[in-house]
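Q: I'm writing up a methods section and want to include an example of the input and output format. Could you take the sequence below and give the corresponding predicted structure tokens, formatted cleanly so I can copy it straight into the document?
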Amino acid sequence: MHEPLASVAPGMLVLVVFVLMAGALRRWWDPVPWRICGLFGLVLVAFLGRALFAGATLLPIDGLRGRAPFLAVAPAMPHANPLQGDLLQLVAPSLTAVQTAYAAGEWPLWNDRVGAGMPLLADPQAQALQPLAVLGLLLPMTAAAGALAALRMLTAFVFTFLLLRRMQCGEIAAVTGALAWGCGGFVQLWLGWPLANVAVLLPYVLYGVAMLDERGTRRDEFLLVMALATFLLAGHPEAILYGSVLTLGFALSRWAARSRPRRLELTLRLTRSVIVAALLAAPALLPAAQLLPRSARAQALRSSSLRHSERAAVELPGHDASAAVSFSPIALRLVPLAAPNAFGNGRYADPSGIEYWGWSNTNEDASGFVGSGMLLLALLALRPWGAVRRRAEERLFAAALLISVAVLALPPSWPARLPLVGQGQRVLLIAGLSCAVLGACELDRRLQGGPAARDLLVGAVLLGGFVVWATLAHAHPQHPEAMAVVRLGSMKLELKVLAASVLFLAFVRRYKVARVGVAAALVWELLMLHGPANPAAELALPRTPAVVYLSSRLGTSRMVALGRAFPANQPALFGLADARLYNPSQPAAEDALLAPLLVVPRGNVPEVLRPDDPLLDRLAVRYVLTERGAPMPAALRRAFEDDTSTVYERASAKSLVSIEPPQDSTWNGVRVAPEHWRVITQLAGARAVAAGIFQDGNWLTLADRTAVETAPGPWVGASVPAKAERVDLIYRPLAALFGFLLAGLGIGWLLAMLGRPRYTGDP
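A: Here is the clean output for your methods example:
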């Protein structure tokens, strides 16, 4: 792709999708006024303009620096956010495998570029069938990150706006609520993760429920089915469950307001929509349901291990655990809801070495913040005094907010005892969305004549006092000067925005400019506080000489890197197969199989212990990359060296697929696809085909197209008869095959449903 065209390709893709989305909504559902679309576009450019139109990338590629073979790579400006390391080690490598499969015209079933291979379609983090992710993968990975982030933000803007309009909020209130959610903490701080899919798709699902309830046409049922299916494919099971609970409550609030005959009809239609959506999502849901209970993370949770626990994964070097316990656990959890930088911010470097001393990290703790003005309005919406006319859904969101805060305020040991609650931070999804919705509803009331100015001033004083106390009373106990510029600067910004919001709200009924001011103050604050979380840098994947050498020589073999060099999974970004594997969703049996290779088998990111380990032979590890000058066994031949790294060749490595014993037999193994190996043979008697591929129970062996019994154990292999001329090793997960059959049934059911007579709900 020509460079100028490549620079604007993400923006053009997003623009096309946005126009098609707006046109479809205008034609068949509710229109988003073009001036509002233009406003959303301007806000999007303010947050992501460089990634969309200037050739920059949102991937934290700067995080590659400092380790071989990237020691000579120049730093990116601005520097990458260190909290986004998982995007390079977990999310992007999996998305790269999905992109490679689709580009080859294959289903993304198996990832052969990490470890001994692992299921790909079954891994929720790979988002293999997630529509937003698949749209982003039309571009190269560095550009896809920006396009996917923009599509997520637009989805949040559009469907939060439409949801609030269906809740009878005026246009100004709906726009403000949509901007609060799309620019708020949960979307922005998790913008590169599957968690953001859940956040932006949840308003889409709620809007679908509202449309089915109010109009009930075939199109509305189709809309809800698509919303639910897309939501179920979001890629984060825990957050999907939280969103599903809120959706159920939203549907019940609508159901309770209907007459008895309409309740039955609505129940049937909602139930059918859920069933059809589950059928459509079955190709990913069923394999995930098979994999996740047997994953390393599930085993770690059952054994109370911290290997793959969320808190262990996000702790930063220099994190002072002793400081964290010096504050009340309730304060550690609740303060960031209103003062997101009160405990510092882990995305900035600090000379003291202390960046954040809160509960976990700023992504975890501050993602419930949706702006000072919106938080003020949400608090006013909860006030128990005065004649406040609340919508039925508003009561639901008020209850959801209070329950979320109650979960966050539980003693530290309690959330871990509650099923699927974990450390509690994921409930900030519900808290943040509830604040945005409640704030929009309260703003709409203000436009219609309330609340009283006294309530507005009292709420502002209380919230402002809380922000000041939260910031000044929670400096680092041993290093009070740490992050002072960020902490105090954030406090001053919040107080200024809070004061401006009160001023605008006082005149919001009288002057149109005040209405614009409320939204402008909100966006400005969130851009200043959350915008730096996703820096866009003009930096492509650095193909250093060592990477180029490995790419040209590796073939179907694998590589490893010793120590902290070229961390696990990252070689997959360059098309290299890495025998190390870092993924909480990996099968626990494979985790145990590879554990002897690791420096700390229960560490967070695996590091190889010995380059001459016999297990590396079985894994077909042909090359070992190290920092230059690192001591190595004499048996390894130096194959390449530059100023930053050295590559050694392991002559003892086996072929990834081999015939055993090889005597008097000839064979040629060909990789047809990640999930398909073909071996052309001339055997001297019966032989065994062995592969350095993990057997998760779904690999089949065919000898001359006839199935043969697979060998027991953790490796793919089988005994084949002497006359076999062709052996195929094929990955065929029955759960995925059954899921595709169910998806076909769902498509048929959906088509039949669209042909049914029109239903009209209560007005």
